[in-house]
Amino acid sequence: MLGFLASEGIEEYAMQAADFKPTKLALDGLTDHGARVQIEGDFKMDASKVEKQSVRNIGRFGTWLAREAETGPMDAEVYLPEYGDVLVGTARIPGIKVNIRNGHTTHVSLVAVVEPGSAEGIRSVAHDYIDGRLQQIRLRGRAEVPVRSGLIRLGKQTIEQSMVFHSGHVPALPKYNITKLNLREANHGRKGLGADASILVKNTFPPVSLDIPPVAVDVLIDGCSPSDKHLKVGTAETPELHIRPKTDVKLNVTGNVEKLADPLTEVCPNSAKSPLDAFIGDYMKGEDATIYINCCTFPDPATPNWARDLLRDITVPVPFAGKEMGNVIKNFSMANMHFSLPSPWAEPGTPEANPSISATVKVDIGLPNEMNFPLDVHQIKADADIFYKKKLLGKMKLDKWQHANSTRIKGHGQEGPSLLVQSEIEKAPIEIQDDDLFTEVVQALLFGGKPINMDMKASVGVGIDTPMGKLAIRGIPAKGTVPVKPIRGGKDHNGTDDGKSPMERLNLKVGDMAIVDTSPTSITLQMKSNFTNPTNYTATIPYFNINVLVNGTLVGSATVENSTVYPGNNSGTVVTVLWDPYTYGGIKGKDVGREWLSQFISGMLHQPCFPLSPLTLATGFNTSLTMQAHNGTIPSQPALGHLLSQFPITVPAPHMSTDDPDDSDPAPPSDGKNTHFIRSATMHILSSTALFTLFSPFKSTTMYLTSLNATAFYEGHEAGKILYHLPFAVPPGLSESPRLPVDWSFGSLGYEAIKKALGGQLKLNAFAIVGVRIGEWRETIWYKGGKIGANVRL
């Protein structure tokens, strides 16, 4: 303004002392080529800002003489030297008159017409700023200013000035807060999803007054990689916006998503998530996401074309603050659980070699209050880490989509709405990570009396039907605690816990036995079993092999194949047993096996036997069997077999009967008479012979008795002996022996008792050493029968 002062010192004084403080900047309206801008502010000369004293003195003196300065109408142009000196814009400024004496203030009010320059140049600067490449920006202003002071006209003075703004001086995007968000179905017959949002923007700018016409923008999110093109999600519109000085801006936005494009929901390469999954996942974890606003279209046809051209294709990244959803899964339960053991032919270490679980899963998912549109989950999958006592127990991987259905539940009071999702999951593999911890869990479930808690952290994927179509959202974080009841809780007749462990309630019963193979040391049997599964769980068993032990000595193995175990009573389960004490346990095993067979066939569970050998004295009369897993129990999962081996199960010897093996009653007869090998006997006094009715539990195999050394007793007194060395057959079921010679103990109390019972019956005890042959297998056992009903005939 002091160009009329020719002195170079006066020019320097003017540039340093001039001070203008704007008090109002307002958009006064749009024209076809630009905008009218109203500018108000206070101008004064401040000599204290001048650095050199000599210049300060000359300037104060000169401006005191001149008193006022006045400019005529002028055009001010602004260029960008570092962008090819492109023209940013031109401002047509009317003449102004100011007091230039030191310390005097002049209030300036004017309306300038601003016309934009190169739209491409302005967009280039905007893109560099948005992308963070703008470290500094240099502006060059130039104007031909007509100047006069009083009556003196000084002609046009050329004023040119350059200014550099560093990145720290360039204003950032203002902070904002979403005060209201409502997601709903689209209005007014439109398709898809609608959104209403109220946004409060902090106004930190100088005193600016601005009216912005209605604007529509595209809303985008990141693609699979930073180099990919941003993907459009939907559109948003704002009504006319009024910005006033020192007043925060309340912005009402209406959005609409008609249909999601395929690239939004397609899984990215080398990833398990789609771009939409990543965005929603970050939001629900409370992490900041980023949306992109692609500007702009103007619904109002009165908006001039220069504004449309200037703002076209400018994309602004906007931080989108995440909302921590907390425990999204409010409740998680599993019912009708079905365990499947892996196939024995699965390769160890592969997913197929893991046990799996099928179940009915119910998940109660808490929904934000903002979600007010129809939502239906039709499929689900998840990867879950399962923790026990804050230690990682295992991983459940449900990689394949499972069918699901959902029901929306209204919120009550402080409780927001929720979505109850139910799904039948099929064969989700479970990979145990800590065998020792799993052992602890199994012990707690089998022998503990209280529920245990499993903590779960999962990444959930859901397929949903929405107003904008079907889509899949993956990677939703979920966590929760699942209580697991102990595997016990049998009830007595009063309906209270009977206190028995699951093993005590197996109630094992076998029948319909058939020998399918023999060798000199072994018998292979197949039998049908009845037992009670005391748990609520179902299991599929493709192959399961366990060792069979007697008093800690390995005597054989048992195998179940292609079987399903249900809760409660199970009948008709086929078990293959290999009885080979010598191969499994050597000489000791052979002796233990012979002793056990003798006790088992005798059918006397808790009475002392005759001391035939030191082994008998050592073992006592015990017909229980111990079942114990081993590394080959499940060939594809040796670690699981080793783990199960730590829980050997000892059960009483299974009861034999000729009853239907599928009989639902697992209890043995109370009198035990249909379980004895010798059912009855007939003694012939004159011929000194005996005839026995025998019971063989085998289904189709004939057993041979190769030798017999037997003694009969009456109330502890010997009555007679049988020595017979000719083999005879014992076919399946009930049969009669040949007439066997009896050497009576004449004069004994036992023989006298037999004579007195002539024509009637009495109860005899018997003890025998018996040679047995079945196929290639041979063995010598002892037999003790108690209270055998003997008919006495001449």
Concise description?
The protein folds into 5 domains: 8-169, no CATH class; 176-320, no CATH class; 329-484, no CATH class; 502-652, no CATH class; 676-793, Immunoglobulin-like, CATH 2.60.40.
Structure commentary:
With 794 residues, the chain is mainly beta. It folds into five domains: 162 residues, no CATH class; 145 residues, no CATH class; 156 residues, no CATH class; 151 residues, no CATH class; 118 residues, Immunoglobulin-like (Sandwich). The protein is 14% helix and 50% strand. It is rod-shaped, with a radius of gyration of 49 Å.
State the main characteristics:
11 helices; 14-stranded mixed sheet; mainly beta; rod-shaped; 794 residues; 14% helix; 5 domains; eleven-stranded mixed sheet
Ordered list of secondary-structure elements with their pairings:
Blueprint: H1 8-17, E1 18-30, E2 35-45, H2 53-66, E3 68-71, E4 74-80, E5 86-93, E6 97-99, E7 105-116, H3 119-130, E8 136-149, E9 152-166, E10 176-185, E11 193-201, E12 208-212, E13 215-221, E14 231-238, E15 241-243, E16 249-257, H4 262-265, H5 275-284, E17 289-297, H6 305-311, E18 314-320, E19 329-340, E20 356-366, E21 376-388, E22 391-409, E23 418-432, H7 435-447, E24 452-466, E25 469-484, E26 509-518, E27 523-533, E28 538-550, E29 553-565, E30 568-579, H8 581-602, H9 614-619, E31 624-628, H10 638-644, E32 649-652, E33 678-684, E34 689-696, E35 703-714, E36 717-724, E37 728-730, E38 733-736, E39 740-741, E40 743-744, H11 749-756, E41 761-774, E42 777-793
Parallel strand pairs: 1-12, 19-28, 33-42
Antiparallel strand pairs: 1-2, 2-7, 3-6, 3-8, 4-5, 4-8, 5-7, 8-9, 10-11, 11-16, 12-15, 13-14, 13-17, 14-16, 17-18, 19-20, 20-23, 21-22, 21-24, 22-23, 24-25, 26-27, 27-30, 28-29, 28-31, 29-30, 31-32, 33-34, 34-38, 34-39, 35-36, 35-37, 35-41, 36-40, 41-42
Helix pairs in contact: 1-2, 3-6, 7-10
